[in-house]
Input
Amino acid sequence: MRAQPLRRARSVTREFLHSEAAGGIVLIAAAVLAMLAANWPGVAERYFHVLHVETGPVISPHHGPMTVHLWINDGLMALFFLLVGLEIKREFVDGRLATWERRRLPVIAAAAGMACPALFYLAVAGGDPALVHGWAIPAATDIAFAIGLLAILGKRAPTSLKLFLTTVAIVDDLGAVVIIALFYTAQLDLLSLTIAAAIVVAMVGLNRAGVKRLPVYLLLAAVLWVFVFRSGIHATIAGVLAALTIPITKSPAAPDDAESPLHRLEHALHPWSAFLIVPLFGFANAGVSLAGSSPAVLVEPLPLAVLLGLFLGKQLGIFGSVVLADRFGLAKRPGWASWPQIYGVSLLAGIGFTMSLFIGGLAFAGEGALIDDVKIGVLAGSVLSAVAGYAVLRFAPARRVLAVRALGRRGDSQG
Output
């Protein structure tokens, strides 16, 4: 008789781990734990101390000895960016972004959804030269959080909306990668950069030669990470570059083809990214001490710029661009999605947690006080966007419902 509850508990656990909401929920829990650890008397000091414990050799003279924080932000997050790169390549080669017709709306929405937050940020904080470098902080969307909330809403969010948000977030990630590579690069070590470039060329050559053994690519990717880390370009870019060289077998009718190295690697990495790497990053980076702070900190230039960029910039950029694209015939809005639902998804895109914290750490590296201000702005803007987006989608009528209501009014008027 005892086996039945145990079996049922295992079934519920397995169902949760395979749900779309799981990664977002685990990430939320990690962020909450980080805030508790950073503000719990007796725990906070240990929390910040452990993050900066030296745990390895000097791989790059620029960074000095490796610490727990460096291993998470530059090491583990390179695996996260490897997964991001795999998703981008799959979508562009064999997925929802394989044709320009499918790319048009997500590209328009993502571009506007990155430009508007940056403009809001600069409008608030651009007057201070010390803060200008953070303009890209509110430009990115956290896909795990956003998709997790959409999954919790269930049938209240049509599949077309989930696909739209996913594709926008993927294009958004691509934009974030480009921004990191171009604008958040330290002084370059040309020798390391040359070696890194040679490794990428070798990986591309292996791909062209038909080599499909993943261990070969992963070994070269590890060496690539070392030299990109030493070069001055952020080490996570190594993950994206490596991903673009992984062979993919096109299989429109069977997108999870077991013979495709890219699909196999993507499926192998996804649970590690969703349940370990991203939550660990959140735990290591979301913690900010609020001792001595008051709500007034939110109206200081840096937190306010990030908050408004995420909450107002994202929704105006994405929703406004979709409305204009639909109105002028550039692209059609997602099928069976009402305008209130599209607005709700535009709000959810303002959840910038992982990428925003990551870019904030790059923009103000070594400036603890400014990074804490970034964290406050990111957390406030992301929570506000999440609550508002969830509320709008929870009560927004579906397009089918609006169509039925319109037909009913038309019938009443004719009667």
About this structure: Residues 401-408 have pLDDT under 50 and may be disordered. The two ends are 64 Å apart (CA to CA). The CA atoms of residues 246 and 262 lie 6 Å apart.
